[in-house]
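Subject: mismatched residue count in predicted assembly?

I count 225 residues in my input, but I want to confirm that the predicted structure covers every chain. Input:
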Amino acid sequence: GQQLNQSPQSMFIQEGEDVSMNCTSSSIFNTWLWYKQEPGEGPVLLIALYKAGELTSNGRLTAQFGITRKDSFLNISASIPNDVGIYFCAEYSGTYKYIFGTGTRLKVLA
Amino acid sequence: NAGVTQTPKFRILKIGQSMTLQCAQDMNHNYMYWYRQDPGMGLKLIYYSVGAGITDKGEVPNGYNVSRSTTEDFPLRLELAAPSQTSVYFCASSYSTGQVYNEQFFGPGTRLTVL
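Triage response: the counts match. Full output below for your records.
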């Protein structure tokens, strides 16, 4: 079946550092999504990307839809302790079908 | 708006017991979903519903049942709990999907352990 490979699996960084994570797919999709999940909570949408090459920012977060339509990356600039959580990429292929990556666990050391 | 609410937050079941995980949303969304999240994994779709009275299987439906008698509620039933069903369960809702993406809103999850 379709899979999303997300890397890295986990990251420990110092407060103030920039973070980069990416996601690759074995198939082409039309929508890339990035979610954040905090401990004990459900995922919350951060950024949605709709077309190849699209670069979108949300505060300190920037995400890009790869031009091959098989990959996406998420950057977080100047990390803060509240950035701690699990970041998921996901693809939406229409109707009900969402495919989620395995997540990148981010820990920020103050 | 409360958004998507789930009860209970935690539950421990013995093998063979049954239970219902409750999910409700007050956003008048027509689509609702149940996912499970195993440790270190992404979310896997169990069942989904496109409206009251309509449900369909997702990727991992075995061992579960759902019903959708109202727009607001979408309970998930485990009939014979097994250790393999130990997981965190998330309910989500969205306004009409189709080819255009509409944001999914997730509940806080139910952490289920089957011993």
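The interface with chain B takes residues 1, 4, 6, 9, 30-31, 33, 40-45, 48, 50, 88, 90, 92, 94-103 of chain A (CB under 8 Å). Marking this ticket as 'not a bug'.
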